[in-house]
Amino acid sequence: MNKALFLDRDGVINENEKPINKPEDFKLYKGVKEALSKAQENEFEIFVVTNQGGIEIGHITVEQLNNIHEKMIEMLRPYCNIREIKFCPDYHLDSGCRKPSPKMILELAERYNINLKESYMIGDRDTDIEAGKRAGCKTGKIGKFNVDADVNGKNLYDIVNNIIN
């Protein structure tokens, strides 16, 4: 069985001061390339699990989102292989896939034979931590301290270093 990092996107991988609705809006945070390279060197598979409720409310289309994700994959390709990106297009919380639901994580874990007990869900919101806990993962919280997270840190680089060291 493999171990993985399940990463939220906005606020973890990229800046999100304003909505990301086209590839030109997508800007990686400093340290993300190095963090994901280090994670992959330490045999973590990399997945992205992201709520994208803007689709349901009409701010962005699936095609636009896919274009943004293609840019992200291209930017990160020299540093890591993103195995798969899962997104929930729903805005309402009772959708079934929107975090804090663990559905996206559980589907990826089953498809790729991931050992959840050895894996981490990393996010910048408490709903990411809840989704990870509900899936049976360890968790990493970026930004405001979360008492339920296994690791807290200021950014993805900080979290990955804490996990690996």
Automatic annotation (TrEMBL):
Pfam families hit by this protein: Hydrolase_like
Site (Contributes to substrate recognition): 98
Keywords per UniProt: Carbohydrate metabolism, Cytoplasm, Hydrolase, Magnesium, Metal-binding, Zinc
Primary subcellular site in the record, as a coarse category: cytoplasm
GO molecular function list: metal ion binding; phosphatase activity
Residues holding Zn(2+): 88, 97
UniProt subcellular location: Cytoplasm
Cofactors (names): Mg(2+); Zn(2+)
Active site: 8 (nucleophile), 10 (proton donor)
Binding-site residues, Mg(2+): 8, 10, 124
Family matches, as PANTHER family: D-GLYCERO-BETA-D-MANNO-HEPTOSE-1,7-BISPHOSPHATE 7-PHOSPHATASE
Family of the protein in this entry: Belongs to the gmhB family.
Descriptive protein name: D,D-heptose 1,7-bisphosphate phosphatase
Species, as recorded: Clostridium pasteurianum BC1
